[in-house]
Write a structure and sequence with these properties.
The protein is an alpha/beta fold. Helix content is about 35%, strand content about 15%. Strands 3-2-1-4-5-6-24 form a seven-stranded mixed β-sheet, with helices on both faces. Strands 12-18-17-16-13-14-15 form a seven-stranded mixed β-sheet. Strand 13 (about 370), helix 13 and strand 14 form a beta-alpha-beta unit.
Amino acid sequence: MSVVVDLSIGIAGAYCTKLLADGGAEVTKVEPPEGDPLRRWSASGAAIPTGDDGALFTFLYSSKQSLVADPEVDEDLARVHALLAAADAVVWSMGSPLTPEAIRSAHPHLTVTAITPFGLAGPWSDRPATELTLQAWSGGIVGLGRGAPDRAPVMVGGQIGEWLTGTYAAIGTMVSLARGGGGELVDLSMLETMTLCLTYYPVTYADMVGRPFRSGRASVTPGVEATSDGIVGVGVGTGQQWLDFCVMVDHPEWMEDRKLFAQRGHLAPDIAKWMAEHTTAEVLELAGAFRIPHAPIGNGATIPATDHFNARGSIVRNRGGGFDEPAPPYRFAPPLPTRTRGHLPADVQGHVHELEGGGGQLPFEGLRVIDLTAFWAGPLCTHVLAMLGAEVIHIESTARPDGTRLLSGVRFSEPDWWEQSGIFSGLNTGKKSVTLDLASDRGRALLRSLVETCDVVVENYTPRVLEQIGLDLDALRARRPDVVAVRMPGFGLDGPWRDRPAFAFVIEDAAGLTWMTGHPDQNPVSPYCVGDSNAGLHALCGLLIALEHRRRTGEGTVVEAAMVDAALNVAAEQVVERSAYGALLERDGNRAPTAAPQNLYCTADTDDAGERDAWVAIAVATDEQWLALRAAVGSPAWAMDSALSSAAGRRAAHDTIDAHLADWCAERTGDEIVDCLWAAGVPVAKVVQPHEQADLPPLQHRGFFEDVDHPVTGTARHSTLPMRFSRGPERFHLRRAPLLGEHNDEVLRGLGVSDEEMAELEAQGVIGRAPHAGR
């Protein structure tokens, strides 16, 4: 069991240590005498009685201990240092009286995970930032077409960057501990986290194809639709789903125009008309019959009453606070020992815990992984392992290659089109590719033989597929008793929604992420990103916990990491606030309870198409920042009202402030606005286009993008990880993404397949190096 000290402030560090504590770590939170600010936090503004803790704090800290220490008192600081001396890791964020440098100097054995907006060092390391400004810099606000062209684009709601950063911080901490003692700094950037999680490898795509993945903004059609009695989420992710949708909405003639699959925005009025003539229940029933991705739009009020979540026990009662909260984001079979949830005594005694020695330069050298995943969530989980030394064997077939190979942006008539996808390349460097037709007896037999040689199996098929190919739980354990198997179904392995198709947007719709995203006077919009990236990261967390359990006990484990359970956890504040205070959190465009004013404002710039669609994000999180903003814009009369000196006053006058700031920004370029306000200490950002990420100074300083050569497309920049490990690696991409079936010979001959058998397998179509002509 690892011992962790929490010196962080905010959701990111708190969620990081919650994941560690729920995974078995002993976590102690160090607080000043007045307590952590989260104890008094409520997103809805609910009054928290003196002496009580806010519900979100209780959710995040129920499985931890607390140590109160006054940084001005030498005896208290000595107690903190005694705690650190007995620990394995510490999670730190800005605001702590101790710096990472001081901690590492005094306690060189520790893993120190530091969470900052831009990294500990670099050109922006001292710049103020907020959730909104970081989303703007990341390219995630406009990256996937979020928001109609006639309105400002919208951020992903619900402080999502904090939760994603906390997940990556937990991963970084566990990775560092996995390679043994010696001490290490894990330098985590929130900007890089959002760059990875809110956009879909846009720099690599643009480098490979020579143009951005998408230019301009457009509403996703279909998406969140208004029915006769509410709203519903419906979407199409494949060509077949589009054809079925055309039939469902009584427009079979749309099937005749093949261009409509990619260019269907103009059909939105016709789709809206059909939806308005049907109830939500009718739409959900029809979509289910046609196997079109669909979900109700969940929120803090409806999620606890949803039949699927009730059947699976996805929402549980907090033992200490008496309110509803999401259950942990993954399940283990057999169950792993975990710490008892509930508040523990404030005073803790020091003790010694020695780390295991050993470990190579890369944490997962010697780990062999079968990767039975596709698209984003599953490959992201295994990609982190590959970048950190694991041998990851990505299984595809010539009939059904990984779906991201189809997102190459080139015509299928071009030679080697399947090797030109920047998205596939961005997710699969360092892996090996083996093609196996799992519909054939020989292909399934080879896969079962391969399982015997591997430590880990990761799959994101629909629940019934693994059993169909003869690799159910019993079969896996029979082949490899100590195997760690990670299963990533969309809605879980049981429950009434078990077999529903699950794309990112459906997960976001069901879990409440969509509800919090969008303008308040319009239907919400799906983030179209977080459902996948968040699921992949939580699956990796569960896998790392299971690997540590196997290291200590020799036992294998099945990790069920349902995508929707991961999404429920990062949207936890909605369920918690509704249950604890009766408050329904709602979307508010680009505003948020953490800052006022906060919004996007159009600048004097034009975009690549010559349109006035260039924006800046401005967020005032403190009274001091308001005074700085007021002075920076020239202390105009409208800003001098004393009522605006408080957050409550500014929030009440938000519309008026927005109007004046909009006028001020409209006369200036984005660069002028950023230079003026950042110099004054005000959080500000340009709303960056996704393919421009590589131009950001802090990402360049930290080497976030690495050049990777490819035999078909040449050199392209590839994103890495949002953290830097002081013990290395210096470079994350050691090999390019594999060509389809590139490693068939190497891997299959390692199973004893002869030259003659290899030729037979290829002749029978069991293996191959190009997509099947019939597909």
